[in-house]
# Entry
Amino acid sequence: MPKKRPKLAVWKFASCDGCQLSLLDCEDELLAVAGAVEIAYFPEASRAVAKGPYDLSLVEGSITTPHDAERIHRIRRQSKFLVSIGACATSGGIQALRNFKNVKEFVSIVYASPGYIHTLNKSTPIADHIAVDFELRGCPVSKVQLLELVNALLNGRKPNIGNQSVCVGCKARGAVCVMVARGAPCLGPVTQEGCGAICPAYDRGCYGCFGPKESPNTGSLSERWGVLGVDKKGRVRAFRGFNAYADAFRRESEANER
Amino acid sequence: MTHPKRPPIDSRWVLERKDFNGLFEALAGRGYAVIGPTVRDAAIVYEEIQSDQDLPEGWTDEQEAGRYRLKPRPDRKLFGYNVGPHSWKRWLNPPSVRLWRARREGGGFAVAPETERPPRVAFLGVRPCELRAIEIQDKVFMGGGYKDDIYKSRRDSLFIVAVQCGQAGGTCFCVSMKTGPKSNGGFDLALTEVLESGRHYFLLEVGTARGAEVAGEVACVPAGKHQRQAAEARVMEAVSQMGRTMDTSDLRGLFYRNAEHPRWEETAARCLLCANCTMACPTCFCTTVEDTTDLTGERAERRRTWDSCFSADFSYLHGGSVRFSPKSRYRQWITHKLAAWFDQFGTSGCVGCGRCITWCPAAIDITEEVRAIRKGDSGKKE
Ligand code: SF4
Ligand code: SF4
Ligand code: SF4
Ligand code: SF4
# Structure
């Protein structure tokens, strides 16, 4: 047993806090986690702050301001393991929709004094700025996977977090494929499993919350969606969700715009 | 109505629709949980069911490549549908199962093997192609030097009520694979559903001594020549309705000599690498193992979960995946099913159930692929 508990820090960038809350949502396991690690920096949960360096930094949110683009480097320097958590941190999040437009136009419409707003043209994932040790996908992340990740790091083993399609989870839970049985468009075949195929189990197509799976064949899926009656505009919208700026999804939405 | 005292193996009886629930009662009385067809989520799925009320009476399905639709039928048939999204392997080789648990002890750890007994299960409504798929998995899990205890313990206590097919679906090709639409063995009991001039009954065949015991508790009368012929006619109807065909001549040689056929790239461009085909297939058996620990590292367990050759990690050796390209993954699946399986298990790995065709979200059709490979068969020997 390690004598000193590893120090955990949770950092926030441009995000909704939902992923951090997943950690607090681990009601049954939270006490065990708090016993196994020293929660050194987690403003959402506690005001106590312990100085770095940290053994594990969980980073939520995307980089959207010049200030944050600096701050993430300081966090990296203080962290042994750094894991980006959630769609914002791993692909730029829903706010990356701005990447497809001119952000200055939004700023002038939204804010009374646009001069005060210092924002970057694009919302980008953490890994675009620093080296990341692991990316935990999802909007929000799955608490089972989050616990598995912390657990694996504590025990010095590889996390059991795969990169297969949502379809694998869908079939494993015995759900009936909504694409085949209802003709409902589903992003499951190109999306990484992690949620346990919740949407198909509730008769909806997958929304792609966990981002592209390994080797996603988005072009072929797009074509199938076309057969199911989803036009190009609809396909652009589908790929421009929480993971719009993830490479494979971005390229597919752009291909459908042409 | 009488109960046949000791119906001999191979004897045939007539079970009226109104007495059908007697079968559920007899099975429940012997401690079996009945798994059978029922309507759920726009499909006919296999699930635990309690009585004839749960059966898909008056329902059927339409199937095409990448398409399944649940439809009402004009009559009250209980088994008037074709195979659905699930296969029986779910119960014989579950999607996730614990292999063992361990606890840290001193410098090492002590392993506690799994002792949980699987439930006693009766399958109701196993189709002939599915019976053959179970036989194939018997070979995979119990036929070689290593016997798989998880499979074997489930298989040994299994009771099978087969249903002969009275209709074929749009993606069925059991006639080509010689696996249906009628089965002559491998079941404890078999039923053929007959609807004629207002009468609704089942021809009941006794396959084993265990089957005879159950049949002995069900109200039925000896089948006459007419009822046997009527049942036979239903099966012939299914033969005439096969939605697909596959030319099976020298499949093994065909795939071995066409590893570099241009068709592979074409199909790989459509394949989503989603693994649905392998998960739906009743003979695919691949699994992976995962080790997990608790937070303190005091306890660990190993689980076995379904896996597929369509996943990159499936062929991961040190340094990378051996089969990374979509082409090599698609080729692996079909070459294993239709060629390498013969070398490994002495049989085809495909029984012609059509699931991989219906449940492929990209509508890829294994029978179509075989035709395409044959067309450009480069190394054909005369
Ligand atoms: S419903 Fe979606 S996730 Fe499930 S098998 Fe079908 S395509 Fe895949
Ligand atoms: S390969 Fe396809 S048709 Fe053949 S047994 Fe498997 S799922 Fe059925
Ligand atoms: S086809 Fe693939 S998943 Fe199926 S048994 Fe063969 S290697 Fe396993
Ligand atoms: S053949 Fe169809 S079901 Fe199988 S992996 Fe490819 S797209 Fe998925």
About this structure: The radius of gyration of chain A is 19 Å.
